[in-house]
Design goal:
Blueprint (H helix, E strand, L loop, with lengths): L11 H33 L3 H10 L1 H16 L10 H5 L1 H11 L7 H32 L4 H34 L3 H26 L13 H9 L2 H30 L14 H24 L4 H20 L6 H37 L4 H29 L10 H25 L7 H18 L2
Helix pairs in contact: 1-6, 1-7, 1-8, 1-10, 2-6, 2-14, 3-6, 3-14, 5-6, 5-8, 6-13, 6-14, 7-8, 7-11, 7-13, 10-11, 10-13, 10-14, 10-15, 11-13, 12-13, 12-15, 13-14, 13-16, 14-15
Family: Belongs to the sodium:galactoside symporter (TC 2.A.2) family.
Keywords: Membrane, Transmembrane, Transmembrane helix
InterPro entries: MFS_2 (IPR039672), MFS_dom (IPR020846), MFS_trans_sf (IPR036259), Na/Gal_symport (IPR001927)
């Protein structure tokens, strides 16, 4: 007799537990996206161009490690499942390497650059080891697309809360813990986020289950890659994800420069313990949180790819509006920025739900389970997008003659405005255009679910 697929709704506890995993990830990735380039240029003392080059060059390793981790996790068989064990095993190395990234040893300029290359590469490898399996877990947490969408919503609610926590409290903590010594402040602040990350990843491990039992991956790596490349919608989604993340991270990495050198934020608190930079960042991330919360409501009424298309277009419009706002209109800057990040909250929540849809569709199309490889390749696209998005401001700062910790000339300020507004807008427009070619709609997914339930039931006879 065949085993009936577990199609019961996910419990609230499990959805929260799964979502918390991305909070743990974003304690680091949010911190890196918002402050790493600034830390390298204005605190650790690396030139903008050198830091930007490092962010790009190190992605060569990710091009190998991310798919490799996907293939490894697809072939993992343990009493905890394929993907959950890595939440347990990789949490401590991930936290420790993040601390080393901000250790800030007193080295020569060349030594500092080498240290940055080594520590950033290692922390990205640790991120791969824990986040590729975490993301692939979504594909097996439920066989029902609607339940995966709900779990994705919780994921990005907590991802938003994680980045919001970083955006709101990082600069106050750096100042409070380090005083006038920003290097010490960054080093002590990252310790707090490292400890929290470990604890939260372990909670995610303890509260989730793997319900889907796909056909084991026993074929060759070449066969898995061939099967993946047959999935055209996955390829469209990968490139859309790159464009959206490049746009977002380019803007995030520019916030500190925009506030310090264009808005002339002195770092003084204007509300409780929060300075203008913390307020702009946290209000924007509250917009992202709201976007993640309303995503299921919107996705129930509009096809996912069309919703991503519209939100990306709206984000580009908000960036164009923000470019025209003078520096003394800080409340208006906050409002328009928050609207833009709201649209990203919707888009990124949908993207990760659509990645698991692509994994299901790929298995239906080719008969091969490549969930880990599908998600890992998608994760690489996001990490590559993050690297490019973080590097663009660095190269632009160098091009426009930026000099750290000095008053900037008009040309440098113009460059900062462009990298904060215009450059991200171009990428969001391109993402909106690309989604025209995505073909997996609601009707197709319903057919895929029915067929896969039948196949998986037959396997267990």
């Amino acid at each position: 007799m065949s085993e009936k697929a577990d199609t019961a709704p996910l419990s609230f506890t499990e959805k929260v537990g799964y979502g918390l995993g991305d909070m743990a990830s974003n304690f680091y990735m949010g911190f890196f996206g918002l402050f790493l380039l600034y830390y390298y240029t204005d605190v650790f003392g690396i030139s903008p161009a050198a830091a930007a080059t490092m962010l790009l060059v190190t992605k060569v390793i990710d091009a190998i490690s991310d798919p490799a981790m996907g293939l490894i996790s697809d072939r993992t068989n343990s009493r905890w499942g394929k993907y959950r064990p890595y939440l347990l095993w990789a949490a401590v190395p991930y936290a420790g390497l993040g601390y080393l990234l901000f250790l800030g040893p007193d080295l020569s300029p060349t030594g500092k650059l080498i240290y940055a290359y080594i520590t950033y590469t290692l922390v990205m490898l640790a991120y791969t080891a824990i986040n590729v399996p975490y993301s692939a877990l979504l594909a097996v947490i439920s066989p029902v697309a609607e339940e995966r969408t709900k779990a994705t919503q919780f994921r990005f609610v907590f991802a938003s809360l994680g980045t919001l926590t970083v955006g709101a409290f990082a600069t106050p903590l750096v100042g409070w813990l380090g005083g006038d010594d920003q290097l010490l402040g960054f080093k002590l602040t990252i310790i707090l986020f490292a400890v929290l990350s470990v604890l939260i990843f372990w909670i995610t491990f303890a509260t989730t289950r793997e319900r889907v039992k796909p056909q084991p991956s026993t074929g060759s790596v070449a066969d898995d890659i061939t099967a993946l490349l047959k999935n055209r919608s996955w390829m469209i989604l990968v490139f859309t994800g790159i464009l959206i993340v490049v746009g977002l991270i380019a803007r995030f990495a520019s916030i500190v420069y925009y506030m310090k050198y264009y808005v002339n934020d002195s770092g003084e608190a204007i509300f409780l313990i929060f300075d203008r930079t913390a307020i702009l960042t946290s209000c924007g991330l509250m917009g992202q949180l709201i976007g993640a919360l309303v995503t299921p409501f919107l996705a129930a009424r509009i096809e996912k790819h069309r919703l991503v298309m519209f939100m990306s277009l709206l984000h580009a419009v908000s960036l164009a509006l923000c470019y025209m706002i003078p520096p003394d209109q800080f409340p208006l800057i906050v409002l328009i920025h928050s609207v833009g990040i709201f649209t990203f909250g919707v888009s990124i929540t949908l993207l990760f739900s659509m990645y698991t849809d692509c994994a299901e569709y790929g298995e239906w199309l080719t008969g091969r389970n490549t969930a880990g490889l599908t998600i890992s390749a998608s994760m690489f696209s996001l990490k590559f997008g993050s690297a490019v998005g973080g590097a663009i401001p660095g190269f632009m700062l160098a091009w426009f003659g930026f000099v750290a910790n000095q008053a900037q000339n008009d040309v440098a300020v113009a460059g900062i405005r462009l990298m904060f507004n215009v450059v991200p807008a171009v990428y969001f427009l391109a993402a909106a255009t690309l989604m025209f070619w995505y073909t997996i709609d609601r009707q197709t997914l319903q057919q895929v679910e029915r067929d896969l339930h039948s196949r998986r039931g037959a396997i267990t006879q």
